[in-house]
Design brief:
12 helices; NADH Oxidase; four-stranded antiparallel β-sheet; 273 residues; alpha+beta; binds flavin mononucleotide; 2 domains
Length: 273
């Protein structure tokens, strides 16, 4: 079995009917992704931050506004405080680098300030999307670069659980929003992460128009069986995938504070209309 076929198999855990026709080192790197939650405290090689940033800045940017910034946290005390705010996630403390990806219109406003202008557009919801999309595309480029260097990463959406406290900790000015965090470090080889299976392609792919397949629920059940097997292999006892989806989406109690984001965003002068 080729490398890409083996990765494909781990990603979908289905019989060989999805054997990919196309393969190269980039595809292999992408298919081999896994989030890492166990790190060594070994420092990162010199130049890592700058390399990840160059990869990130190479991503596309809406209207080339480059409406995002990167905030790098390495101070152990600040990392620990952010870990506590983000649902007490230990890997934030463990790894040497914590990156906070910011949607950032404050730089544009500073350019406008020189001309005495008050920008109208950053306050719109679409601008929050523009800045957040830019930040996400940039971050994912950094993830791929980090993994290609043998480093591990995990996104931290829980950074939005206590949004105002994070804004205060990082001293973020108006028109700046922390979209998510990203832990970067050397994976602990004693506790390696595995490739997590994904939904079968026919459940995700629509051709020409949005068409719900007759066997969608059956295929989802099939996926749950393999996702359950994966969890057991990892020593986890988790509810089924559908249960996890419902638990996360059925009530705002599952949001751990994120339901207050709209209010905090207004304080940052974002998403006003
Ligand atoms: C925007 C975003 C936020 C996330 N937030 C967290 C988080 O706070 N903590 C965590 O352990 N994983 C977090 N994750 C990682 C997901 O749980 C993970 O990507 C998903 O379970 C699939 O696993 P994989 O990345 O290993 O394939 C986040 C992922 C994304 C894309």
């Amino acid at each position: 079995m080729s490398t890409v076929q083996s990765l494909w198999q781990q990603r979908y855990r289905q019989a060989d009917d999805y054997a990919p026709a196309l393969a190269n080192p980039v595809i292999e790197a992408l298919l081999g992704h896994r989030s890492v939650r166990q790190y060594l405290d070994t420092p990162l090689p010199e130049g890592t931050l700058e390399t990840l940033l160059a990869a990130a800045q190479s991503a596309s940017s809406s209207s080339n506004l480059q409406a995002w910034s990167l905030l790098a946290v390495q101070d152990p005390a600040r990392k620990a405080r952010l870990a506590t705010l983000a649902n007490d996630q230990q890997h934030i403390r463990q790894a040497p680098l914590f990156l906070v990806w910011l949607a950032d219109f404050s730089r544009a406003q500073r350019i406008a300030d020189v001309q005495g202008l008050e920008l109208e557009v950053p306050a719109l919801l679409d601008s929050l999307l523009v800045g957040s999309l830019d930040a996400a595309l940039a971050a994912q480029n950094a993830v791929v670069a980090a993994e290609s260097l043998g480093l591990g990463t995990v996104y931290i959406g829980a950074l939005r659980n206590n949004l105002q406290a994070v804004i205060d900790e990082l001293q973020l000015p108006p028109l700046v929003f922390p979209v998510f965090g990203l832990v970067v470090g050397h994976p602990d080889p004693a506790r390696p992460a595995a490739i997590k299976p994904r939904l079968p392609q026919p459940v995700v792919l629509h051709c020409e128009t949005y068409t719900i397949a007759d066997d969608e629920q059956q295929r989802i059940s099939g996926y749950e069986a393999l996702a359950g097997a994966f969890a057991r292999e990892q020593g986890q006892t988790t509810p089924s995938w559908s249960e996890q989806v419902l638990n996360r989406l059925k009530s705002i109690e599952a949001l751990h504070g994120r339901e207050r984001i709209a209010e905090t965003l207004r304080g940052q002068k974002l998403a006003l209309r």
